[in-house]
Design brief:
heterodimer, A: 260 residues, alpha/beta, 4-stranded antiparallel beta sheet, globular, B: mainly alpha
């Protein structure tokens, strides 16, 4: 069996007494699309934030391609990763946020080219060529010169997806990327993610409340509750014939009005 | 004593030389204040305590003592540890250091007003802390605080007479010398007052022009929408 791209063992995160991630184990294969569902506060977003190094874990290990994300070797001892080490590891990850977080003072093209130009070995022209390809992928070629405030929420999120992909991350993390959008704008963003997923090799971890989307896109669906993976499997299986009571209860709540 | 226009005109060149010294002192002092103020702000926010702590202490001490004391200190106390500067550079340095501790609070407010999501997005695209400040945070933090920084420019003009205490021949000191030599104070001091008024008005205009200019850089889209 091949080594998984992402390997998580015993991951723990606490806020004071509150346990947000509780001894979490998870393997993700290269190219796999994993959707994560579950009630709010169940730790799904925290998992992505720990992976993106926005939050420090309190215990456990995360390995990406066999390399530890949050710890490093120094003089034969394992120590907490320093900023330089994290900087190197972060290259392998990209994230799309619920609230976009585009850079408001930069135009769309610059939002996408800024990081590749600064952090990777590409010049402005190469970065712009790549950025225009990505704008084509997300269907916003004509918005290259626009400022974020001139875009709709759906357009902003598509730019944010392009910005994350510009760095060619091994793993793309999507944190409730449609939750802040007006309902009529959700489709265009999910459409872009579907297209990326259809192209095959991008490993994706997607936290979402869109069950139909999760079913269509994911190879595997995880149901989170209280910082643990309660149930996992093929999306069809988990959504239509869940084994756990808590999964069933959650699905009844959330699907009461939109089960496909 | 009545106003003597001929006398007033005769002392103008001398006072203008003093005015020029005042303007130079403020231009240099403000430059120092803006650069150091930003430096303190960044140092105080640094996760490295050996940077954050001394910067905080310095800012606290300087803000809690009068500018005049600082001017005397630099001029009379520093030479005893071998640091001897002539009057004008000492005065400029004192103005710059003093106002840097006010400018730093303004920068801090600007930096803190940038939403946390901007830091997180910068991290997610793997920018370093320095790159994040330079390309993401400061371009958003500084334009909104330019008016507040501008107020300190005007305040600094009004503090320059204190430099006369260490014999800098700025405009007020020259007017006093003229007064003592001619026994006429009305004309020189009136001219000094008018000169300060004009300087304040001019700096206010300068600041508001800068503000408009930055506003244009910030939101060219808005401008495009109206045209």
């Amino acid at each position: 069996m091949s080594e998984p791209l992402l390997r998580i063992r015993g991951l723990e995160k606490r806020y004071g007494d509150l346990v947000v991630l509780d001894q979490l184990d998870l393997d993700v294969e290269a190219g796999e699309k994993v959707a994560i569902i579950g009630p709010s506060g169940s730790g799904k977003s925290t998992l992505l934030r720990v992976l993106m190094t926005l939050e420090r874990p309190d215990g456990g290990t995360i390995e990406i391609g066999g390399e530890s994300l949050w710890s490093m070797e120094r003089k034969g001892r394992t120590v907490f990763a320093d900023e330089a080490y994290l900087h190197r590891m972060r290259r392998r990850l990209g994230m799309v946020f619920q609230h976009f977080h585009l850079f408001p003072h930069l135009d769309v093209l610059r939002n996408i080219t800024l990081a590749p130009e600064l952090t990777q070995d590409v010049n402005r022209a190469e970065a712009e060529t790549r950025a225009r390809e990505l704008l084509e992928l997300v269907g916003l070629t004509e918005k290259a010169g626009a400022r974020p405030h001139q875009l709709s929420g759906g357009q902003k999120q598509r730019v944010a997806i392009a910005r994350a992909l510009a760095l060619r991350p091994d793993i793309l993390l999507c944190d409730e990327v449609t939750s802040a959008l007006d309902p009529e704008l959700v489709g265009e963003v999910l459409g872009v993610l579907r297209e990326i997923s259809r192209r095959g090799d991008q490993t994706m971890l997607i936290v979402t409340h869109e069950m139909r989307f999760a079913r269509d896109i994911a190879d595997r669906l995880l149901f989170f509750d209280q910082g643990r993976i309660i149930e996992e499997g093929k999306p069809e299986k988990v959504l239509t014939a869940p084994e756990e009571d808590r999964t069933r209860e959650f699905l009844r709540h959330i699907l009461s009005d939109d089960l496909p | 004593m009545t106003w003597d226009t001929d006398f007033a005109i005769s002392i103008l060149p001398e006072l203008m030389r003093g005015l020029w010294v005042t303007i130079q002192a403020v231009a240099l002092g403000m430059s120092i204040a803006l650069v150091l103020g930003l430096g303190w702000a960044l140092a105080r926010r640094s996760p490295r305590r050996f940077l954050a702590w001394p910067a905080s202490a310095f800012v606290e001490v300087v803000r809690s003592t009068p500018l005049l004391v600082q001017i005397y200190f630099l001029y009379y106390a520093l030479p005893s540890i071998g640091l001897r500067l002539s009057a004008f550079p000492t005065g400029v340095l004192a103005l710059g250091l003093h106002y840097s501790t006010y400018a730093t609070e303004v920068y801090r407010a600007g930096i803190e007003s940038v939403p946390r999501g901007q830091w997180e997005a910068s991290r997610a695209v793997n920018l370093t802390r320095a790159e994040t400040y330079r390309h993401v945070i400061l371009p958003q933090a500084i334009p909104p605080v330019v008016p507040a920084l501008g107020n300190y420019l005007i305040a600094m003009f009004k503090d320059t007479p204190m430099l006369s205490a260490i014999t800098v021949l700025e405009i007020l000191r020259r007017s006093q010398i003229i007064g003592k030599e001619s026994f006429r104070f009305l004309e020189p001091l009136t001219i000094v007052g008018i000169a300060y008024l004009l300087l304040s008005l001019l700096s206010a205009r300068l600041v508001s022009r800068l503000e408009r200019h930055l506003g244009r850089i910030q939101a060219p889209g808005l401008e495009g929408a109206t045209s």
